[in-house]
Amino acid sequence: MMLKGNFKIDNSKAWPFVLGLDIGPQSIKYAVLRRTPTGKRVEGFGRYSMEEKTDNMESQIHQFIRWLFKKNRGLKKARIVVGVDNPQLVIRQESFPPLSKKELLQTTRFGIEQELGAEGTVEVVCAFEAMGKDEEKQGNTKYMTIGLPEEGVVENVQAMADHGVIPTKVTATVMAVSNLIPFLPQEYEKQTIGILDVGSERSILVVFRKGRMDFFREIGVGGSDITKSIIGTIFHEGKAIQFSVVEATEFKLKYGYPLGFSEGMTFKGAPLSEIGAMMRPMIERLMSEIQRSISFYRDSSKSDGLDALFLIGGGARLKHLPEVLQGKLGLPVSLFPPPKNLKIMGGREKQQVFARKFPELAVAAALSLESSLTCNLLPETYQRIHRVRNIQKYLAAGMAASILILGLISIQMKSSEVQLKELVKSKEALIARSENRTHRFMTLQNQLILVQNQFAGMDDMAMQDPTLVQVLRLFSHVVPDQLILTYLGFGKEAAQPANAKAGRGKNEAEIKAERGVRIRGMKDRPPADVGVYLAQLIVALEKSGYFSEVRMEKDMWTEERDEYRFELVAVLKNQ
Q1: Rounded distance, CA 278 to CA 233, Å?
Q2: pLDDT at position 73 over 80
Q3: Is 98 helix (H, G, I), strand (E, B) or coil?
Q4: Are 387 and 168 within 8 A, CB to CB?
Q5: Which of 332, 290, 270, 282 is nearest to 307 (CA)?
Q6: Are β-strands 266-267 and 270-271 bridged in parallel, bridged antiparallel, or unpaired?
Q7: Which of 519, 507, 428 is nearest to 478 (CA)?
Q8: CB under 8 Å, gap of 24 or more: what pairs does 438-443 form?
């Protein structure tokens, strides 16, 4: 089919984890690709063989899904892309005036039904992709439209849905092959190249011009046709030799097309030349169909044809096939090179296995490189399930986010509550300290007034007792500046309690006859050496000659107020 316009796959929103499934009539190939910040990495690949061909494809897919997801349960988190290679697949280029999405879908469906000759009788799935402005019809837009009967998709998808696995996207393999183009050497970027997918029952030729799909065509010859041609009976030296499918496949990979065979070489007792002669008609038919398709493309596109042809698919592993095609077509032909910038998980051994089997795995790898929902052929029923699941996922995520936010708010409120409590405690402590300081200030004021009154009373006493005057003068000189006097009493000490040591050895008469001075003082926020200043005061009083005894009545330090208080008694000598 000639595609006069070009299109490219939208890679603007790359999917991080993708499982590509290439479902064929004889096997299912798969590739698991993960995109990371450092590049693309293949985390798994393989081939699931359906040994006996059966009309019940659904049961085969059932077995494969059970096998694959049992092997790796983490794959259920991957986006699954399934390739469609159906003879009834229709791909068209259309030009439409401005239409709504609903109108475009209806128009596309009508065109596909007409192409299939099934207007209103068969349900079809279809999709479209905008290709840009139509230069020939002003105001129109070019679209790539694609579709096929819905039953061609449902059979595969339902088998997966029965296991709770629904593909994210179903797309045509001829379109997915576009994802392989960036892995070719840069020299092919501006050339016209072909990719021939030699499948089991048929082959597909896809042509790319300057990196974009320009043409595709189905060829009714596949790898199984070549295998069947070898299975026929060969008579050699009176013996009938017939190969099994396994033996025929072994021959294809080991010897391939009869190129450079020497006389006498045999395989399982059969001459290689005779085996080659059996497959030659099918190979020549394949070459003829390829040549016809390339000629049609060259004439339709008014171009010089292909600059190179690359082979993929299980049938492309036939030994010597690239050399035979190159000689027939007159252009470079080779197997599609394994992508060098695609990392393979599992080390060097896995890398070598992937490279060896890449022609067969190429379509699955191309499907795993899908990264958008454009041209999605997944029936609406299954797309609706995806939408419901997404809504449920978003609701769950929203609920989780709400719980997290509430939790954060709760933690913040708790933190604020603790901070407020600490602030209240600090303010209460500050108020308590302020109250204590106010109380202490008032107490000191009262004591000051008391001392002033005492001094006023002592003035009267001093007029009658000259000794008192001398003692007061003494105190004004000997009291250290670091200490504050809060009380000074003068008179008989007999009525005041004295310590046992002070009173030991004295009779009651002597005690009653004593006169002395009671001194009380304090130091706010006392230094560590406050006792030294008090000792200096006691020594100065003892050396003054006025007192027969100076004794400490009490001293104490209050932690809450951080103050030191003392009380002394100095006994006057008898005059």
Answers
A1: 10
A2: no
A3: coil
A4: no
A5: 332
A6: antiparallel
A7: 519
A8: 440/561, 440/563
Residue 398 vs residue 451, higher pLDDT: 398
CATH topology of domain 465-572: Alpha-Beta Plaits (3.30.70)
Tokens 């085996």 belong to which residue?
275
| R_g (Cα) of the chain, nearest Å | 53
Closest to 369 (Cα-Cα) out of 8, 12, 20: 20
Q: What is the DSSP string of 371-406?
A: ---TT----HHHHHHHHHHHHHHHHHHHHHHHHHHH
Under CATH, which architecture does the 1-182+339-378 domain have? 2-Layer Sandwich (3.30)
Fold that domain 185-336 belongs to in CATH: Nucleotidyltransferase; domain 5 (3.30.420)
What are the pLDDT digits (tens) for 83-124? 888 778 888 878 888 888 888 888 888 888 888 887 777 788
Identity of the amino acid at 392: Q
CA 385/CA 345 separation, integer angstroms:
33
Q: Closest by alpha carbon to 200, among 219, 185, 183? A: 219
Query: DSSP letter at 525?
Result: S
Q: Where in the chain are all domains bearing CATH 3.30.70?
A: 465-572
User: pLDDT band for position 311 (50/70/90)?
Assistant: very high
pLDDT at 241: 83
Range list of β-strands (E), 190-288: 192-198, 203-209, 212-219, 234-236, 239-241, 266-267, 270-271
Q: Is the pTM of the predicted complex or chain greater than 0.90?
A: no
d(C-alpha 474, C-alpha 463), whole Å:
17
Alpha-helix residue ranges (DSSP H) falling in 378-516: 380-464, 466-478, 500-503, 508-513
Every domain of the chain with CATH number 3.30.420.380 lies at 1-182+339-378
Quick one: which of 351, 48, 542, 184 has its CA closest to 194? Answer: 184
Q: Is it the case that residue 319 has pLDDT exceeding 80?
A: yes
